[in-house]
Amino acid sequence: MDLLPFDLGRPWMLFAGAAAIAWSIWIARRSIAGQSRFWSRFSLAVRILLLVLLALGLADARVEKRSDRLNVLFLVDASASIPSGAVTGEGGVLDQLERACAALDQGVMAGVIVFGSDAAVEAPLAGRFARPRMQAVVDREGTDLAAALCLADATFAGTEGGRRAIVISDGNATRGDEVAEARNLAASGAVVDVLPIRYSYEHEVLVESVQVPAEVHREEPYVVSAILQSEVATKARVVLAENDRLVAERTVDLTPGKTRVDFARLHAEPERFSYTVRVFPEPGAGGAQDALEKNNVGYAHTLIRGVSRVLFLGDEAAHVALLGALASAKIACEALAPEQVSLRLEDYFGYDTVIVADAAAHEFGADALRLLAGVVKNLGLGFVMIGGPDAFGAGGYKNTPIEKMLPVDMDVKQRKVMTNGALIMILHTCEFSDGNRWAKLIAQAAVDTLQDRDLVGALVWDMRGQDAWGVPLARAENRQEIKDQIGQLVPMDMPAFEPTMQLALDALVPATAAQKHVIIISDGDPAPPSRSLIVDYIAAKVSATTICIQPHGNSDTGVMKKIALDTGGRYYFVEDPRKLPQIFTREAQHVQRSLILEEPFVPRIAFESEPLRGLAGGGLPRLLGHVITTAKPLAETPLVNQYGDPVLSHWRYGLGKSAAFTSDATGRWAGEWIAWPGFETFWAQLVRSVARRGAGDLFRVDRTIEGDRGKILLDAIDPEGHFIDGLALEGTVLSPGIEEERVTFQQVGPGRYEADFAARQAGTYLLSFAFDDGAGMKGTMQTGLTVSFSPEYRQLRSNEERLLAVARAADGRVLDWDSDFFSHEFPERVQEIAVWETLVALATLLFVLDVFFRRVLLSRAPIRRFVARLRRRSDAAPTAAGKLLDVVLAKRRVLAPERPQRRIEVSGVEPSERGAAAVPERPPAAGEATPSAAAGSPPAAAEGEQTSFTGRLLEAKRRAREKDSRRDER
Question: Where are the beta strands (DSSP E) in 626-693?
């Protein structure tokens, strides 16, 4: 729409506006309203203007705005590949920026974005530029220039005038497509210039990779190979550590390029071995040193296969009978306490099954639970959870990755009658650093552990200075709503424990709950509760756990200890707030005791599955209790109790299998099972039924790192030595951050299959895949690949070609520190501003006026009188003669005697004319007209005005009826 002074996003809407205007004019011509012609036309004009504004608003009218303002963002690369000091050191990038931006011109705005593997705004766009202090926290172990350009685009949003992004980098990006993002930034009207950081590591030596077979047999020799890369000819000392123990060392001569160093190894016993290779290069000519130490180390691991191995997590002393039964069945077990569980993926390569026996969720921590679920799903490990007072729902596994992995739900859904628990949290967390944020996190974590039927609430001293319910006591079934309420809490400084504890007790006493529990978190300085209130807590069987954090003195801790001791709760003293979620989760378990059913029963066999094979004939002994759960729809549940609750359930989860035995394996509930002759057989069959099954000698695996990609080569060979072609191979890679990536193998040669995946993060990657030859041969295999250090430390020189590609994609330039960063040498940016909101607001105002003009009959007489009054005031402006006459008349009124006069009101005379009707009170002379007769004309005038005002309305209606009658006659 170039003919208009603005642009239209939907110009076709103008046709709708034109139709509406034509319709309004047609209606106005047929209107029978009693308005005068002036007001009728004025009202029509208002309505037409209203429709024009609405049509322009619906047509998305936009006006163009031009500005001389300039916005410049400096994108500073802070990744680890940049030489030390090049950014923050003396004469580095930040010093140069401070000098270049010392005095910004009027209308120039400058800001700074720093980036590594992520990006953050260091200094927002502003007219005054201060030296950046690198306060923004970014991950330096990678370079994502694309993320920085995307953040720059978001920062520019809504700004007026020109936009320029200046990239200060070495050009070595490890992730993202910076060229594509530069094009996107250019499309939004910005120019991207580049300023290279140039460097080259001339004397660098690094460990490119450490290669070792993924699996070997006992007493089979194998080789650990270190591939070293050197930029110069030099000598270097290479050492090999096996499971953190030094086993070999040698000095080698390195030449420019790659050098292979081999170490022979042999082992007779099955075990997992981790290898670490370190290289120590000698100084070069002139004392030149190897600059980057992080790339002088490499890692790898292998597995010596043997008997099946089980990782047992629980109380070893309490489960002696179970561990002895597995050992008798030739199943090797390694027992660890839950808090000792490893968070390294590679530590699980040597196990086939993980058993968790009567251990609470808080003993592991969220990261360990997520890792255990990940290795079952993606590595194919078996998993067995054994019950007890601290297992399943009673152990706090509700809404955890373990619950998702197990064949049972922690919520009890099939029972008509089921006891529940009630939990109230009293939050006084405003007096320690970031306390209220921690209060919200820990309270939300506690809610996640509860069953739907449980009751939960939270009390605070609120911003109004009152003890109040931040979250009223209610069922936990609406978890998200409750967590949203918790997120809005602002606990203030509570003066006394008594009011909130009384509110909690008043709510818990009438509540229908088997377990009633209160958790109080505070620094202990509120006034202590009265003894009578503590007695009431004891009488109502309400326990109170206290958590003391950063108290002001010993008296504060004493108050909180006494509350917990007197009511049967627990006392915690916390120095690190990061431990709070774990404590709250543990205390939330207190109300889950209702899930424990301690009634003797004989398990009923619903059907015979692999763990029960051969055991059904002689019957099963009694169990004295178990934890109530609900079987998932796709799970197999061969053992149930007298109510149909699952006792044994199992299913497949990802590449692995998991099983749940809801009773225990100790003398508490399973004393008769321990004495049962089938005890060893049952547990051996259960563990073997879920254990990982490998591919044996079917595959030979080669693992390498190429840049930021990991590569896996598989050679499939049958026992007769023939290549196996046509296998369907699909798998999953689990990154060090427990993130999944799907991979598909492609056959690249006879019996050879290849796949690659992103390997930008340092750490161990687990690759698990399933295979199927289409002829009945199926199975799974797992292997791992370790990235020793970030790809950042493989970049030995700057990449100016990549920076040049970024500049070309956005019509930018290659700058240096003498360039003018704030020149206006780029296409003028015209900004379109949507004005539909303003148009609609004006149309709304006109709509009100339109309704007023059409509903209220107006006359021009008031306007005429107002104009006449203004004219009379103008004509009566005092002159010099007039002022003299006023003085004379004033003196005359003073000297002359006053004569009484009576005002005669004349009907029909305007107020402005009534002054002339005031005459002396005397009888009329002969032949004079009476006052009433003399005033006869004004009433006639009023009658005429009445006719002109309402008569027109009646006349218009009469004409409309006559017109309709003539139409009917025709």
Answer: 626-627, 630-631, 636-640, 646-653, 656-661
